[in-house]
Structure formats: structure tokens, C-alpha cells
Specification:
The chain is α/β, with parallel strands linked by helices and 203 residues long. The protein has a single domain (2-201), classed as TIM Barrel, CATH 3.20.20. It has helices spanning 12-22, 33-44, 63-72, 86-98, 112-117, 140-150, 168-172, 183-186, 191-201; strands at residues 2-7, 28-31, 53-59, 77-81, 102-106, 125-129, 157-160, 178-181.
Amino acid sequence: MKLQVAIDRVDMQRAQRLIHEVEHDADLIEIGTSLTKEFGLVELQRLKSQAPLLGDIKTCDEGAYEFKLGFASGFQYLTVMGSSSMGTLETCAKITAEQHGGMMIDLLECDDARISRISGFSEAIYCLHMSKDSGSMDDPVGQIRSFRQRFPQIAHIAIAGGIKQHQLQAISKEGIDIVIMGSAITGADDIQQTCHQCKGEIQ
């Protein structure tokens, strides 16, 4: 299981410092939606990281334009909303394959019927996501197990939504691809040490 650290709601200088703090232990570093909206993908090219960067652009339309721009801006992974049209999802998958990148489908507010309909993207990572406004995910292991039972055809899974360090060992036993953590790491007193400890929990 990979550790993805999300960076959100900071300025560019702080974002670069946070990257420096976590890049040796994080498998992926997410440049959050707040940064993509405030600064734009072209400006975010200034950020440098030893770890792969994911741009949480939450594409819901204009898939070709946004994914081409995202990959051209130096991101190795990009996100698209599961609520997008099938045409948008197919376009994003096509561009991702052409660019040898990674596509994460954000399942925020997608019901089971919708997830079933869009479950055929075999290379995509499907992200179980509790929104910031809705609070933390209380039982991530239960959510993962329930999701696998309902959608055994989906091979690649990530989970996000207020994940805490004490939950990592249990999550790591569920065989998912990525666990995403934000302020539990970036808001810690010692960010580098906390990230290192979190990485140790999943090895």
C-alpha cells in the first residue's frame, strides 16, 4: 500500500516546504484542489518533488484539455470525478494511457448504481472519499470491505477522508493501493517525523 500525502490550503512557499518535509517517505504527494484553483496548473509547475505528484484537479468536463494540461504541467497522476459523463471518463483514461500516467476516479457522492456503471476502467484507481465538509471516515476498514463485496470487479482502490495514524496498520491489511492522509501529517508539530512514522505503520 502506498502513502499519499495531501497538501491543501497553503501558499506556494508553504507547499514547497511541505513537499520537502514529506517527499522522502510519501509514495505520492497530492497537490490539492485548493492549490489548483488558487494558483493554476501552469503556476504549480514551479513545485519540485522527488516523489511523484498527483494533481487533484477533480475534472468533471473538458477531460482532454484538463488532463493534457495536467500531465504537461508535470503531474504524474490526475483526478476525475466519478460523477462525470462516461465520455469525459473515457477521454481522461485515453489521455492517461497516452501519457503513461495515472488516473484516480473520485467517488465522492457516487451511489452504487453509478459506481457499477463506471467500474470498467481497469487501470484506474477508484478513491473512496469522505468529503471535508462531511467529516472523517469513522470505519475505513469496514468501508473497504463493503466496497470490495459490492464491486469485486474494481482492482485498484484508494481511501481518503480524515484518515489517522492509528488506523493505518488495519487499513494496510486490506490490500488496497493507496491510503491518503492530509492534515494528520501536514498539521503535525513534526511533519517529517510524523510522515516517517505513518510510512512505517504500513510497511
